[in-house]
Amino acid sequence: MSSPVSLCRDNDIGVIRIHYPPVNALGQGVREGLQRCLQEALADDQIKAVIVTGEGKTFPAGADIREFGKPPQPPALPDVINEYEASSKPVIAAIHGTALGGGLEVALGCDYRVALDSARLGLPEVKLGLLPGAGGTQRLPRLVGIEAALDMIVGGNPVKAAAAKALGLVDEVVSGDLLEGALAFARNVIDEKAPLRRLCDLPIPGDSGADVFARFEQSIARRQRGFKAPFHCIKAVQAAAELPFEQGLQRERELFVELLLSPESAAQRHVFFAEREVAKVPGLDKDTPRRDINTVAVIGAGTMGGGIAMNFANAGIPVKMLEVKQEALEKGLAVIRRNYENTAKKGRITAEQVEQRMALIQPTLSYDELGDVDLVIEAVFENMDVKKAVFSELDRVCKPGAILATNTSTLDVDRIASFTQRPQDVMGMHFFSPANVMKLLENVRGEKTADDVIATVMDLSRRIGKVGVLVGVCHGFVGNRMLHKRQAEAIKLVNEGASPQQVDKVLFDLGFPMGPFAMSDLAGMDVGYRIREELRKEDPANAPARNWTDELVEAGRLGQKTQAGVFDYKEGDRTPVPSPDVDGIIEQYRSDNGITPRAISDQEILERCMYVMVNEGAKILEEGIAARPLDVDVIWIYGYGFPVYRGGVMFWADQVGVKKIHDKISEIYQQTGDPVWKPSARLAELAEQGKGFNR
Ligand code: T1G
Asked: Which stretches make up the 3-hydroxyacyl-CoA dehydrogenase NAD binding domain (predicted)?
């Protein structure tokens, strides 16, 4: 098999080309080829300088992540880079696309770097729970200084070519033909006999005292709570400031291996692939035709409808927004404009972009104006009668082939589809609030939804910047179905003696952005209350029993919006404060229900809140509501802030141990007889086989 790396000569300049699609990842063959081609170039007396460049869409975008977890194969990337740095002939990296991770580290092993103006350069290893392990933490500070190096390595975000030039990371930015620019630069290096510039020989410019690192660590402590890699990154850069180069490389290696073997990095690498795998729907032929989506309509200009409309305007897709009253329409548009203006104030978009996006949102009061749209998303009140009225109208006015989507978060998508003559064109697109911010989109396939509709909506998800996950029809689909189980367990724990703040702290410490009760207060307690009351009317036998949270709502304690919910909130402050009034309501509830409160351990809280979700996730997989455990993981990370360094609910279960979880669930089921604790067959099977969900 031909090598993915080749050397050719352009007069007295050697050009090393990497051809390993899709991203020229530095797999074993590439590393071997780089090493071989450099040796050939050094042995060729006609070659006076060497250029390294990537074919296709990008300069190498990093080590080959698929090799992690497997036995390392020589040559090791750090060794290859050290050979480039030791080259007796000048080496120039010609960069386009995204020079990331090990790719940028290869470029740092070169004497000079030339970048195309559209290129981006970065060290995103921290997002995989790693650190630049091929010299990046030692070479980058020597080129750009400690502060800039820490920003790039700990932040993990790429910088554009122009910014890289300003930092000194890039020596020249070219437009048009990259190779032509790089050859001209190399010609210049030869003619001017420019010196070799090995970064290992450079002193670190600027301030590199220990307090720089302490200050930086302090600045990230809150945001990076629970992560390991960012703090190891700081240690590695500090080694560059405090140790000779070779020892610094050694320290970097030690810290890198610690992270590579850590459960956090395994989780983050799992998420990296999972968030790409979810777009590939098992059983859906990749050649399934897609329908063109050029114009969209959103029904409803409320919080959800407005947020949904913004997603399409942000992607440059014209979107009609329909309301039944002019006043509601104007209010919705005003909210959207305010959102854009706030974003502009933060410098994320320009004033001109605000106007461009507002112009793409076309208000209307008439269904008759929807005859030309390719997709309609309904975001009206969560009531089946209202949905019926809307979908009957849509069926009447929309052109054949238009996709009719509902944003419902709990109602039956198949029943909604039955209100039309075209159930094959109907599916759910469940956005998460705030819809213009949250990345998760649960795409709900109805029983009759056509494959091309599914494929179209899954592609569209990525086009509007969402992570689309395909799910089936059931109450709450995947995310909310599991969330409702956790919420019910959290309430039971308080009934039995725990305090709301104790329950919240356990899940906060696991890594959630907030606990279940603070989350209820944020969303509004009345939302869940209305759903429970609706169920109590429709199906009293199966509806959830009343509990103390109902009494809070009936006492007007709706959450943050009333500065009182499960917790109290000071004016303009979102910090939850335990409330003596709520404690009294809980005590009264226990007394009325003959419950003698007991001390409950944090471990019991963690197991009951998390294992009940693992069991529900296993049932969801059994029923085919989610196709793979990784779909459930991605939903929880992008929909509910599950800590990415724990990989998602099902990945976390694997790390805890499926058998251990199964045995605990069985024990609780025997103690309580509560059907929610009946071990799922899938869980029992995996426990029996000694397997995991993702393994
Ligand atoms: N290794 C293996 N496969 C990779 C890969 C990588 N580094 N990067 C992308 N892919 C695959 C990806 O799974 C997908 O596969 C296809 O390429 C297209 O990716 C020693 C240890 C480069 C910005 O973290 O950020 O270097 O689904 O859909 O939207 O210090 O991919 O088609 O089968 O994302 O155009 C550091 C990760 C590694 C960069 C392109 N590097 N990649 O985005 O396409 S660790 C990274 C990205 C390291 C060293 C350390 C993005 C992209 P499939 P895609 P895209």
From this structure: 295-471
